[in-house]
């Protein structure tokens, strides 16, 4: 993505990178984009098992979501997802409720525009997941669960959970998603540069990640402002413990606007955010952002 540049080599604390280790990376296609694993090891042979495990975990998530038949296809009126998909769908719909639909894990089929003539377009409210029966009900034949909205972040989180937490690994996806594990040898974390979304050139920033997830939504990358908030923001960056949360919140904050965004983030104490809103003079709103005060 244009809005992110990863600095792999520059040391963040005295001593630099362990001379016995160097960076190795490998990428695969995933959910219509590219997923990458980066780790440090003495040799590629040492790095290979960890990289292969991470890539296999991510690809496995994509395969399971595809084989479930619950994503990107018409949904049965009632279905019972397997436990993994049930947890993911329930989590996504929970965030849709929390954000008032600013985050929506669904899309409408191209040949459908509404429930009926003159009615509102189908959306997340046409899906209901019953925790007691573990059944998913679809009240519209036009609604689809969108795998690209939640799949990449879920895949990176799943790979993180499967790896040794002490591994110096950074997982990323081209949709602007990063999941950092332990830092590279001799470093405090993985540094991600955040490019300035404005014309002024005054807002360049970076963030250091260790055992954390980072996601960014950028107007420059999507090409159009959210329809519910056409004034902005230009960019929404979120740090959270898990990438699913960071990814969906970066999308939601782009739609909510500054006042509603602050209200939402006040109820999420573990989340850090930085938003740049479009205006004659761009305004930067930070909530618990590193180095920006409370």
Q: Tell me the structural class.
A: alpha+beta
Biggest sheet details: 8 strands, antiparallel
Q: What's the mean pLDDT score?
A: 86
Q: What is the CATH architecture term of the largest domain?
A: Roll
Summarize the helix and strand pattern as letters: EEEHEHEEEEHEEEEEHEHHEE
The CATH superfamily of the largest domain is identified as ApbE-like domains
CATH class categorisation of the largest domain: Alpha Beta
CATH topology of the largest domain: T-fold
Categorize the overall geometry.
globular
Low-confidence stretches: 1-17, 113-118
Strand content: 25-35%
What is the domain total for the residues? 2
How many E-type strands?
16
What does the radius of gyration come to?
Answer: 20 Å
Characterization of the model:
Strands 2-3-9-10-13-14-15-16 form an eight-stranded antiparallel sheet. It has a three-stranded antiparallel sheet with strand order 1-11-12, with no helix packed on it. Helix content is 29%, strand content 28%. It is α+β, with helices and mostly antiparallel strands. Residues 1-17 and 113-118 have low confidence and may be disordered. The protein has helices at residues 44-68, 83-98, 147-162, 219-222, 243-256, 258-266, and strands at residues 4-7, 22-30, 33-41, 78-79, 106-108, 127-130, 135-138, 143-145, 169-173, 177-180, 190-194, 205-209, 212-218, 235-240, 272-277, 283-287. It folds into two domains: 4-62 and 149-287, T-fold (Roll); 73-145, no CATH class.
């Amino acid at each position: 993505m244009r809005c992110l540049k990863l600095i792999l080599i520059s040391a963040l604390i005295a001593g630099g990178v362990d001379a016995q280790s160097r960076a190795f990376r490998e990428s695969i296609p995933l959910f219509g984009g590219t997923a990458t694993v980066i780790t440090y090891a003495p040799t590629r042979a040492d790095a290979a098992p960890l990289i292969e495990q991470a890539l296999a975990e991510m690809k496995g998530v994509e395969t399971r979501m595809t084989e479930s038949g619950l994503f990107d296809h018409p949904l049965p009126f009632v279905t019972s997802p397997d436990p993994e998909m049930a947890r993911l769908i329930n989590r996504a719909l929970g965030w849709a409720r929390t954000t008032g639909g600013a985050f929506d894990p669904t899309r409408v089929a191209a040949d459908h525009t509404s429930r009926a003539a003159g009615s509102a377009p189908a959306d997340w409210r046409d899906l209901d997941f019953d925790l007691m029966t573990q059944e998913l009900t679809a009240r519209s034949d036009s609604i689809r669960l969108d795998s690209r909205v939640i799949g990449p972040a879920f895949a990176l989180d799943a790979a993180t959970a499967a790896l040794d937490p002490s591994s110096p690994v950074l997982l990323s996806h081209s949709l602007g998603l990063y999941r950092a594990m332990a830092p590279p040898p001799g470093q405090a974390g993985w540094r991600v540069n955040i490019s300035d979304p404005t014309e002024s050139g005054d807002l360049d920033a970076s963030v250091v990640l260790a055992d954390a997830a980072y996601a960014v939504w950028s107007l420059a990358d999507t090409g159009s402002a959210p329809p519910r908030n056409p004034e902005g923001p230009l960019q929404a960056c979120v740090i959270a413990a898990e990438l699913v949360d960071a990814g969906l919140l970066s999308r939601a904050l782009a739609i909510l606007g500054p006042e509603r965004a602050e209200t939402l983030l006040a109820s999420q104490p573990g989340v850090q955010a930085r938003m740049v809103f479009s205006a004659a003079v761009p305004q930067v709103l930070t909530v618990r952002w590193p180095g920006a005060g409370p």
